[in-house]
Amino acid sequence: MTLSKLFRGKALALLLCFSGLSWFFIEMAIVVQAGDTLQLDKQLILALRSSSDVTDPLGPTWLEEMMRDGTALGSNWILLSLSLFSAAYLYLRDKKHMAVFLTITILSGLAMAFLLKHAIDRPRPDLVSHATKVYTASFPSAHAMMSTLVYMSLALLLASVQTRSAIRGLIYVAAVIVALWVGVSRVYLGVHWPTDVLAGWCAGAFWALASYKVVPYLFTDNKNA
């Protein structure tokens, strides 16, 4: 296979990925606003609760604590702190282009998440008592979206300086696991509909990958780095 064919193949795969993520999010927003997913959302939330007491999540106490910890990993303050400290570190290491990329990507993603919440304005689930405090609209899940965006962006930065494919793969897998953990925890704790989380994952992945491809030179060392 020639280099040009490989490049065209990767470009086509990326285009399909972007198209799929954007289509899925838009379709999800449409059906959510129409109320078409409400019954399924309710069934999935209740499936994670005790049949005799819907205030009691399924599983042992340690599982509930693990889900609370997962939610904490996706909180705005944790993600902002992690992003800004990472950006400061990159700046001090004379990786100013990466620091600027990370800061702009995360802050713009956060703004987009709250704009989408305000525009769609979906109420939070009221089937069960919330196991953590909430104060914004439901769709999309900002925890799911921002955790995907932050951890994937950091993974892309870390992987860009690795030469071994196994290490790059491990970094990506770790980022995906944390994002999944955060998203699942929101449904488990009763503060989000499952479709909120799916849309959040989708939007976060799209934003991270789009930023990565729009400014590809930020991920490679150059003579000024």
What's this, in brief?
The chain has 8 helices and no strands. With 225 residues, the chain is mostly helical.
Number of domains: 1
Report the CATH topology name: Vanadium-containing Chloroperoxidase, domain 1
Mean pLDDT, all residues: 87
**Strand residue content:** under 5%
Question: Main β-sheet, in a few words?
Answer: none
Element order, helices and strands? HHHHHHHH
Q: Using only CA atoms, what is the Rg? A: 19 Å
List the helices and strands and how they pair.
Blueprint: H1 3-34, H2 38-47, H3 61-73, H4 76-92, H5 96-120, H6 142-160, H7 165-188, H8 194-214
Helix pairs in contact: 1-8, 3-7, 4-5, 4-6, 5-6, 5-8, 6-7, 6-8, 7-8
Pfam family, one: PAP2
Domain Phosphatidic acid phosphatase type 2/haloperoxidase: 99-212
EC number: 3.6.1.27
